[in-house]
Amino acid sequence: xxxxxxxxxxxxxxxxxxxxxxxxxxxxxxxxxxxxxxxxxxxxxxxxxxxxxxxxxxxxxxxxxxxxxxxxxxxxxxxxxxxxxxxxxxxxxxxxxxxxxxxxxxxxxxxxxxxxxxxxxxxxxxxxxxxxxxxxxxxxxxxxxxxxxxxxxxxxxxxxxxxxxxxxxxxxxxxxxxxxxxxxxxxxxxxxxxxxxxxxxxxxxxxxxxxxxxxxxxxxxxxxxxxxxxxxxxxxxxxxxxxxxxxxxxxxxxxxxxxxx
Length: 261
Fold this sequence. Notes:
The protein is an alpha/beta fold. It has 2 domains: 2-91, no CATH class; 105-236, HUPs (Rossmann fold, 3-Layer(aba) Sandwich). It has helices at residues 2-27, 33-50, 52-60, 63-91, 120-135, 155-167, 183-196, 214-224, 241-257, and strands at residues 105-109, 113-114, 117-118, 140-144, 174-177, 205-210, 229-234. The strands form 2 sheets. A 5-stranded parallel β-sheet has the order 5-4-1-6-7. Helix 4 (63-91) packs across helix 9, helix 5 crosses helix 6 and helix 7 crosses helix 8 (214-224). The N and C termini lie far apart (50 Å). The model has no long low-confidence stretch (mean pLDDT 90). Residues 105-250 form the DUF218 domain.
């Protein structure tokens, strides 16, 4: 009896945290699997904690359904372990640039614009890229991203303006790739821009993105023929960090299953 009480409290607390996390971010129009799934899981855990005895009694007296119920929990815990491993990888995968060897180019991948300004995640990427670009003044800096829904300027334009105004990076160093709408296109559309500068994708290149995105972006870059690149990951804002990581988990798995890299 005591154990079941603690289980109910545990699921109620976890459920409430997950539900509020998803609900608040969805209310802020951040709607994706990384916010919807916590909302649904939180709702399930809350209901489970409230109707714990009724649910367990129901499955106890329905043997076949009880087996499916237990198997479902087993799958959930296996998934949770794999998610924990993925999160552990991301938490320990922030690259520190110590090698000052010259690079030919720096590519910053887009991550959304809000009201004409870089999103919090995109600003972190630009803040991470700026000191690298300042230390490599001869390297071309490609900012990559098209026009977001509801915006009038491309991500590339907004990124370029942010870097010039905040870090005084010269406009002559920056190249705008303003047509892409995905990571795959970020890297693909950057290739002709590099070629126009007599830079081959086999030359040393730094790719800057968020910590959660480095694994998938690297896989896509390799498939496209980038062979001498270094991934540099910026930290994700705490308010959306684990939701972004959760979304990326499914994006990486689906990309792997669909043989996208």
